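User: Could you write out the 3D structure of this protein bound to coenzyme A? I've included everything you need below.
Assistant: Certainly. Input first, then the structure.
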Amino acid sequence: MPLSQTPESRSPMMNARIEQSEARVIKAIFPSITNHHNTLFGGEALAWMDETAFIAATRFCRKPLVTVSSDRIDFNKAIPAGSLAEIIARVIYVGNTSLKVEVNIFVEDMYRDHREHAIRGVFTFVAVDDDRQPTQVWTQES
Ligand SMILES: CC(C)(COP(=O)(O)OP(=O)(O)OC[C@H]1O[C@@H](n2cnc3c(N)ncnc32)[C@H](O)[C@@H]1OP(=O)(O)O)[C@@H](O)C(=O)NCCC(=O)NCCS
């Protein structure tokens, strides 16, 4: 399975749906979610990423979904206590019963206009029917 599709390879309707379904969540990094380095605990970041990816995927298809895999997660920059983190999730691949969502986290200073990319990962979801069996994830009527 390819990792992503180009907008040119998709229908205009699907591209519009991807735009509309993008999900953004902003969190304040308080001490309750940091580790002994005084930076965001990685497990917390993973939970946020899975949830935000799930929101984008659900908005996209409006069907019951389960997480089937997460690809490599790159922690490029530590997120210090006392900063803001923005999680952005966007559908990048639509298969038959599955779809992939790219999630990026940006770290932002609270007291100056400075923002940097910190974490990236890709999550795959499968649409399931009432019997929890894979079902088509996208139809033009979705
Ligand atoms: C998700 C689940 C229903 C898939 O069942 P399955 O019998 O493996 O399904 P299939 O082999 O028919 O694959 C279905 C789709 O998932 C994709 N897929 C399956 N395993 C995958 C994996 N490890 N990584 C990426 N994609 C995967 C297949 O490529 C296929 O995609 P396509 O239809 O777009 O081509 C089943 O594995 C399951 O219930 N897993 C547990 C999910 C769960 O509990 N998640 C955590 C809580 S939400």
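Residues 31 and 119 are 19 Å apart (CA to CA).
User: Perfect, thank you.
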